[in-house]
Amino acid sequence: MIHVVRYESPEALAEHVAARFASFLTDEPAARMALPTGATPEPVYAGIVEAVRAGVTSFRRAHVFLLDEFGGVPPDAKGRCDVMLHRALLDHVDVTPQHYHRLDPEAEDLAAMCAAYDASMKPALDLMMLGIGRNGHVGMNEPGTSPESATRRVELAPSTTQASVRYFGEGAALPTWGVTIGLSAILAARTIWILATGESKADIVRDVLLDPVSTTRPASLLRGHPDCWFFVDAAAAAKLPVGVLSRG
Ligand code: F6R
Q: Strand runs (DSSP E) across 27-126, as ranges?
């Protein structure tokens, strides 16, 4: 079951999702969660940082898993997911360093690193937070990915490589591959939150929610999950009929 919640603006979405996250973490202080990077979650992370600074909640007992990571670019490049998550969240909250799990594309044995990552998420994460690509990818699970896919190395769609210029900057080397949590661990999570803001996401939000479920748009597979929440702002929801929405 997918619940679609619409907010008037990206600011309103960020405020509500951050508050919802703070209550989730306060209720379940030892929760294990995967977190995305990219532009969409940044204002949400700013709200979570504020909540932690204000003493409303704490990451001390929580476990944070990085959702995905770009390979073939320097580990300290500003667009690497690990670097972005530190900048937006981890550097400002009280996550216990041993409780932060990152994917390492430089690992000598990449397959073994991915298998160990999958094993460490078993039996299932409590919360899977996601953004969505304009082609319907979640994490780096590009169109065509099987719902049974594990954590693994993936080749990026050319449009995903191009979109990453927003993270790495003009003129920087852009990644063509990455490592990502697979759809099996995403679909196994107890609850899934997926975030979409801005008019550039309006078409994919409509397709994912209204077209038949298909691996050609991996995010549509989330519709079969028992507890999935799709948080959208007015611009991303612009092409949805009113009937599928709840007001945030
Ligand atoms: C990032 C990730 C990606 C992004 C997606 C949207 O960890 O897994 O799937 O969520 O590409 O990116 P933004 O939010 O920058 O539009």
A: 32-35, 63-66, 68-71, 100-101
Angstrom distance (rounded) from CA 196 to CA 181? 19
Look at the block and give the residue holding tokens 């799990």: 101
Taking the C-alpha atoms of residue 102 and residue 80, their distance in angstroms, rounded to an integer, is 11
Cα 198 to chain centroid distance, Å, stands at: 16
> Per residue in 59-99, pLDDT tens?
999 999 999 999 999 999 999 999 999 999 999 999 999 99
Calculate how far, in angstroms, residue 140's C-alpha sits from the geometric centre of ligand 1. 8
Q: Which of 129, 138, 197, 230 to mutate to test the pocket of ligand 1 (most atoms within 8 A of CB)?
A: 138
Which residues are designated catalytic? 68, 135, 137, 142
pLDDT at 245: 73
Pairing of strands 177-180, 152-155: antiparallel
Rounded mean pLDDT of the chain?
A: 97
Give the CA radius of gyration of the chain: 17
Q: 35 φ, ψ to 5°? A: -125, 140
Taking each helix axis from N to C terminus, what angle separates 10-27 and 42-53, rounded to the nearest 10 degrees?
Answer: 50
Q: Report whether 237 contacts 210 (CB < 8 A).
A: no
**How crowded is residue 211: how many other Cβ atoms within 10 Å of its Cβ?**
12
- Considering the entire predicted model, what is its pTM? 0.97
At 168, the amino acid letter reads F
Cβ contact 122:150 at 8 Å = no
Cα 179 versus chain centre, distance: 13
